[in-house]
Amino acid sequence: MTTPTNHRIVPIALLAVSFILLSPAVAGVDDKPAQPQWFKGNTHTHTYWSDGNAAPEHVIDWYVKHDYDFLVLSDHNILSQGEKWYPIGRDDWRPLRPEHVEDLERRFGPDWVQTRTVQDTEQMRLKNLPELRAKFERAAEFIMIQGEEITDAFERHSVHINAVNLQELIPPQRGDSVRDTIQRNVDAVIEQSQRLGRPMLAHINHPNFGRSLTPEDVASIKGERFFEVYNGHHSVLNNGDENIPSADAIWDIALTLRLTEYDLGLLYGFATDDSHHHHGQGRTSQPGRGWVWVKADELTPNAIVSALRAGDFYASTGVMLKDLGSSDRTLWLEIQPQDGVTYTTEFIGTRWRDGAVSAVGEVLATSSELRPRYEMTGDELYVRARVTSSREHPNPFAEGDMETAWVQPVLGQARGNITAHEPGH
Ligand SMILES: [Zn+2]
Ligand SMILES: [Zn+2]
């Protein structure tokens, strides 16, 4: 990125206060003077390394030019490492055609592109992550974080899990149920993170893709706590339908289960592109639909992933926040206004009353202010916020997609009551 962006300019006092509130564990390290900043990134992207329709440098260049700070290439069951040759075809349906090769030569120089012919087939060598990092990374401006979409299944159910900041490939682990399949893949990420002493995370992708995962499946994930509340692919049913809940509703059902029956803690939501189609327009799966804003000490893979792990982020498809914070009694945010746009903030949570869950995922309060704030009453298991803009998404995944931000849930006081009444449950 070459232009500074004004979203980084947040009053220092606000930053300091909210950072302490948001991340008590990190705030305990007093000798670190770094001021946290907001960084924008996408953790779900495909290229020629699997089924994306463009070269990795074409894809990365788009994100750099659109002011992203970090990007994860998450191809299916492969890391962008070593040597891979991709066929150049002359048919219209081929992802890589001669004009695409010429385009890359024109943009990145004639020495950049390497081709060969093997048994009458022309091929182009794909740039690997070390080469891509050397070309695009700029200190404090743009970084790549290594990733993989671990692409597994149980019977007809797709189990896709993005592993972020991986160092070694994780092949699909296979399980004997949907939940076992999710857990084995998550466990493989946790094992690698512990063995290599490096922060990593795994997020469950597009639960409604192929109607694959139930809210209970998403809720059951142990040792990890991330899923996609928004995925920009056109066929993932973010909004659900008459038979399945929306990804937003899955979040509330899963949170309620995790904080009562399952005793597993909070679940955090990502928005991602899952971009496959990097040429042309239309209702396919293009870049620029969903992302996260992360508040981190510095722009490095470990700092970004550590901040994500701490919950210091929000998901967005266009609504930008100046800041946000919480305590055990309040959840507040400040919206970055845009001309001619209005915002509706819904504070959503589940209450625990008379020893039982009342309605799951109730709208507890609604605000049209730029600094909405929710004061907890004491009976909430959790509270989260969703800010919906009056502006339609400029490149929607589906009709009626409005620009939105999803603020991560925070625990309410009622959670303590359950633990106290049902120890070890
Ligand atoms: Zn997927
Ligand atoms: Zn994907």
How does this model look, in words?
The protein has 425 residues and is of the alpha+beta class. It contains 10 helices and 20 strands. The strands form 4 sheets. Strands 1, 2, 6, 7, 8, 11, 12, 15, 16, 17, 19 and 20 form a 12-stranded mixed beta sheet that branches. It has a 3-stranded antiparallel beta sheet with strand order 3-5-4, with no helix packed on it. The radius of gyration is 22 Å and the shape is globular. Bound molecules: zinc ion (2 copies). One zinc ion (ZN) binds next to loops. The site of one zinc ion has 4 residues, from loops.
- Overall pLDDT: 91
Which topology of the largest domain does CATH recognise?
Answer: TIM Barrel
Work out the count of structural domains: 2
Structural class: alpha+beta
Rounded Rg: 22 Å
Our estimate of the beta-strand percent is: 25-35%
Low-confidence stretches: 1-28, 420-425
User: Which CATH first-tier class of the largest domain would you pick?
Assistant: Alpha Beta
Bound heterogens, unique? zinc ion
